[in-house]
Amino acid sequence: MGIPSQPGNATPPANSLPVSRASEAPGTNPQENAYGLRRAALSPMETLAQSVSTVAPTLTPVATIPLVIALSGNGTWLAYVLATVAILFVAWCIGRFARYTSSPGSLYSYATMILPPWLGATAAWSLLFAYVCTAANSIGGFYAFGGPLFHQATGSNVSPVLLCTLITVIPIWIAWRDVQISARLMLSMEAVSVALIVVVVALVLLRHGLHGDAPQFRLQGMTGSGLRLGVVLAVFSFAGFESATTLGAEAREPLKTIPRAVMLTPILGGVFFTICAYAELLGLHLSGSDLATTNMPMHVLANVVHVPAFALLIDLGALVTLFAGVLGCITAAARVLLLMSHNGLIHGALRTTHERNETPGGAILFSGLAALIPVAILAGSGVSGLDVYGWTGSLATYGFIVTYGLVCFALPRYLRKHHGVVNAATRIIPWVGVLAMVLGLIANLYPVPEGPYGKLPYIYLAYLAAVLLWFAARSGSRAAKRERDRA
Asked: How far is it, in rounded angstroms, from Cα 79 to Cα 412?
């Protein structure tokens, strides 16, 4: 699974690293090579918690659905249905890989098993970029929502840079301390936050009664372009659903529990998001409010069903889920960095793991700082948290779409070459997944967004060009060294 998959990509001796376990030859069986991580530490529920926390389901009803409503109107529920179907095609492909092989490198290790080295490197750096930007997205959201709440509670303002630092440093410490503790924290945080929203949504549906909301079922006022853009935005609600694959060395029975987590997360998320989208529009119709422009949609729903106290609890729950999101993304990014370091894609120091905690401390610190520093600079410059939330979320989308598309593209050949599996499903589903990701990428790029959003694709492309040039230069120098050694 090395990158590049050529001689000379061996990792440096383990004894050259100060705090690490002995390295083993790369393999697809996590029981053969845990890369210094704690083997079989996480239960199926704790493995599922990794994917759920990265998706951060509480944020979709609070922050994303109102944006989709602004685009798709009464077709918002349909946008989420279509987004769920598209993601399930991708999840099917990832799940098939996860049935046969498991490692901390997750999607990028799947891609490198079958694709040319430069495409494997593209998957690696894109996935890392996506996880770091999603962590930055949660940090930006935390100071966007946390600052006003702190002011409301105390009457004074708190530095956004301080909020950004707190929401990053604490997850870094937890992720370094114990992977099992972090998984349990993420699971409990998300469970409480989602439960609060479920109660409010259920009360809205009960108040309306058994009859459906006619404007929504008739898709009244929806346009084709609005639905298309709404689907693209809805897809981001699922970003990171596959992050359980980064726990390949640490999950119990990973070839069973990881594929289940990969499929279950978008299924549960799709049902939850679709019902919330329907309920929020229903709340709009019941209250006469405009959920497409309000920054606090759950406040509207809570007032509709006469439980205003729940609005504050949901806001607090959103802060908690943002915390869990930072923790989940740092955890995932660090595992990807660990394997990238083993495979020579980044400095060898990041392949070390703590002797007692069995966590990749250097990779965790690197991931956390990579997410924190840009957001802290923007926050200190007076950029609003909602802007940071939107920009980093869009950047993360590019990384996820490219990686998902490459994994879907690699699956048919992998199954045919390594397992002799060829059937109608393996011929059709992966290509549907590739098509969905290509269409999603095009929809993100055309028509060209206005303002800063129009510059974001160039940031991602510049990043990708830089790391691929570095990869090519590094591969060239290794090839030259091998030639000199032969001579």
From this structure: 28
What is the distance between the alpha carbons of residues 312 and 317, in angstroms, rounded to a whole number? Answer: 8
Domain extent, residue 184, equals 41-446
Phi, psi of 18 (to 5 degrees): -70, -45
Is residue 15 a part of any domain in this protein? no
**What are 196-241's pLDDT values in tens digits?**
899 999 998 888 877 788 899 999 999 888 898 889 889 989 999 9
Q: Burial letters for 361-397: b for 16+ Cβ neighbours within 10 Å, e otherwise?
A: bbbbbbbbbbbbebbbebbeeebebeebbbbbbbbbb
Residue 160: CATH number of its domain: 1.20.1740.10
Structure tokens at 2: 């090395």
Let me know if residue 418 belongs to a domain.
yes
Contacts of 299 (CB under 8 A, 6+ apart): 308, 311
Q: Give a yes or no: residue 22 inside a domain.
A: no
Distance CA 117, CA 121 (A): 6
Residue 21 has pLDDT above 60, yes or no: no
Say yes or no to pLDDT of 177 above 60: yes
Contact 139, 167 (CB under 8 A): yes
Q: Which of the 8 DSSP states describes residue 42?
A: B
Q: ∠ CA(377), CA(384), CA(186), 5° rounding? A: 80
Q: What residues have CB less than 8 Å from 463, skipping those under 6 apart?
A: 125, 129
Tokens of 212: 């459906």
Q: What is the pLDDT of residue 98?
A: 93
Q: Are 3 and 105 in contact (CB under 8 A)?
A: no
Question: What is the pLDDT confidence band of residue 149, given thresholds at 50, 70 and 90?
Answer: confident
CB atoms within 10 A of CB 405: 23
Domain count, the chain: 1
Helix (H) or strand (E) holding 277: helix 254-287
In a domain, 154, yes or no: yes
